[in-house]
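// run 5 | inverse folding | seed 20
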């Protein structure tokens, strides 16, 4: 901050806006220089919290990880985790994907925002500077997100297109899509204050989102386990006649719902349920879909 204002700070509790008199361009430079030191905050954070002391406290760094591919100069995939942390939930995914792509992983949102109320634009204010820095002289592959991460990924690809002028393809794994989390959580979770605060924080983000829309390429992947009870035994168990009819209805409802919003999108249904359909045993098939659509 002192290198920008060319004056010494009296204390870390000075009002950056009022006492230091930073212009908008100086604020952008201040945020960029702080990010280079591993302290991450957004423009809205500066206006809200005002002092160096508080900004240092609220920084959620590190909230992302960059993993180089086993291949030299491999294209970069942006992975948006959403609710759950990268480790250990996506370790199988990363292990398989890094054979062909480098990965920029935005970890669970709560590692970034905690449980404070944050809009989707404020959340993406953290992501965009990281993408700018990471993608210098790198080739983009696609953006992917699972569950709530897929919903955030929709907002992210639009922001990337508008600010960076690049239209990345999107692979959305079982997105929540226009659903309030607090209305659907089990009663036993209601008593868990920390979880409830997290869900409330995510619903606050959701309330600031427009309905998912993207003019670029969108590939949807859904698990089949919404209609099968013994998913751990698949594919050996086969389908009963009723299960197959339930499957056709489920598939039809999904396709109708998403085709209405994304008429040019591609749909796949993969054996597995919401929590395991991107694990190591299923990733070879997922990888095949990725290469078919994004190579």
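// decoded
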């Amino acid at each position: 901050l002192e290198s920008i204002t060319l004056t010494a700070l009296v204390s870390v509790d000075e009002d950056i806006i009022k006492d230091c008199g930073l212009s908008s361009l100086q604020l952008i430079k201040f945020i960029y220089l702080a990010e280079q030191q591993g302290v991450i905050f957004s423009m809205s954070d500066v206006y809200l919290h005002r002092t160096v002391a508080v900004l240092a406290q609220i920084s959620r760094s590190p909230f992302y990880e960059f993993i180089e591919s086993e291949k030299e100069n491999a294209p970069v995939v942006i992975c948006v985790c959403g609710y759950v942390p990268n480790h250990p939930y996506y370790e199988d995914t990363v292990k398989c994907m890094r054979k062909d792509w480098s990965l920029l992983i935005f970890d669970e949102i709560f590692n970034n925002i905690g449980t404070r109320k944050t809009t989707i634009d404020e959340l993406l204010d953290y992501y965009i500077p990281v993408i700018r820095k990471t993608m210098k002289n790198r080739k983009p592959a696609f953006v992917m997100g699972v569950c709530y991460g897929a919903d955030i990924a929709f907002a992210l690809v639009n922001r990337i297109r508008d600010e960076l002028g690049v239209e990345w393809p999107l692979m959305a794994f079982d997105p929540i899509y226009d659903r309030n989390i607090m209305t659907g959580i089990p009663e036993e979770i209601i008593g868990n204050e920390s979880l409830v605060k997290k869900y409330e924080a995510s619903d606050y983000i959701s309330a600031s989102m427009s309905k998912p829309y993207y003019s670029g390429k969108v590939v949807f992947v859904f698990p089949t386990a919404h209609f099968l009870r013994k998913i751990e035994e698949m594919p050996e168990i086969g389908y009963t006649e009723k299960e197959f009819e339930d499957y056709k209805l489920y598939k039809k409802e999904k396709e109708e719902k998403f085709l209405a919003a994304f008429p040019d999108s591609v749909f796949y249904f993969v054996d597995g349920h919401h929590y395991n359909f991107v694990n190591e045993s299923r990733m070879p098939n997922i990888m095949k879909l990725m290469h078919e659509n994004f190579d």
